[in-house]
Batch of 2 targets.
Target 1
Amino acid sequence: MIRFLDGPAEGTPLDLRRAPVLLRVVIDQDGTVDALDQLDDTPKDSETIYVYYRDGEVSRGFMCSRGRGGKGCQLILSADYRLHAEQPDVRATERWQEWCVAKQVIGINDATT
């Protein structure tokens, strides 16, 4: 589970497929909190973007189940995030990627972490 320790998303747990070093968190006008963790995620016009950074390492685990509906396993990521001191205008994915490159963190463990 992804936890946000401060800022506007504080206390909101999310189940994400990636836990990158830098993460765009969005809050919709209705208060719904989500994260743009996938490389092709884009924000809605109604969402406000906040930049968070991962505080510490990522823990990984698997949850497997067998039941009437079949069986399956799911990767569970656990990481803590804090609000980044800098809140740049990163609505456009290209700007987000440029900003991450400038911070020299894009590509670091970006497959699942």
Target 2
Amino acid sequence: MNPSEPADIPRTIIHLDLDAFFCAVEELRDPTLKGKPFAVGGRPDQRGVVASCSYAARMLGIRSAMPMSRAARICPRLQIVPPHFQEYRAASKEVMARIQALTPQVEQISIDEAFFDASGLPQPGEEIARQLQRTIIDELHLPCSLGVATNKLVAKIASDVGKKCKRTAEPPCALTVVPPGEEAAFLAPLAVEMLWGVGPKTAARLAEMGIRTIGDLASLPETDLTQRFGKYGRDLSRHARGIDERPIITYYPPKSFSEETTFARDIARENELLEQIRDLSEQVARRLQTQRVKASTIRLKLRWSDFTTLTRQTTLARPTDQGEVIAAQAQRLFRGVWSAGRPVRLLGVGASALTDDPNKALAADHTIQPAFWDADFHPLVESERDQRLDELVRALQQQFGSRSLKRGLK
């Protein structure tokens, strides 16, 4: 909202959600898929998961994030389509361009979702949403659902409600409008889990208090919720009454970068696992370098063959954007939790605590083992020779591909 506008003029916030986006793009690639149960994702015999599934598949009980092997058992005639992310990104860019043609106040929250502030436009919010929906369907042939309200919270829930109300084998293409002043009444009958931030644990605690709907939650005094949940209790109370003053954020500075891979078969060989960590570390380093930032916290994610997942992290004495440094730290964290011969299903490497000031010193994590620093290779000493070598490797990778050349283990 423009600061010069009177505070009592309600905003018009619209949330757009592309319906089964990956599937919609795949139907454009192959029109014979339309109306059929199919899923986008990896192969069942390679531990693939469902990234997206058609509405015909959803009618049979298939859901996103489900193991593809399970989806294939539920529906033996399910067609499995490999993802084409480059085309998804291109289609998403076209959708966002249609929104940005209306207003620069656009907050993209994922490849298939965005908020935008239509407060300054002359038409009513419902008319703007309906015209945009028609434009995206007619010009891009992509179905989408929209929610219109006075704030982001209610607009998002409105689009979710619209999609849930239309349970058919066709995309919902819903449009749900919550008029100003009716936010609390709209939310009241909905399950409390539909509120942002209310996950299974919070929902279970609320259920113990007899709270099952958003209206139940709104009826509690804010002081009671604050006593039970702390500062989060205040947010719960306000959200339950449909109050959300967050602005549209047109740019999110990155807070972390991470890369991970799930193996088609469990890996139990140390050298191969360490090499995988190095590859992931180099990918993270390239992203840091592209953004011209350095990271001080290195994180390792590991999943065993029984699906147990753990994370470990450490903080460097000084920030880095070098793959050699990231790999050394991630490999050290790995050795601290891995026992010889234990199979690994997934590995991930992340970098956070970002800064664009290379001279900013951050306190070292006391969990770093002193013996590590007794090694011949000191991972925090980035010599001029090492930096020149990394620059040469990056230049060759940019010209010939990320896997054309990489530095060897020391």
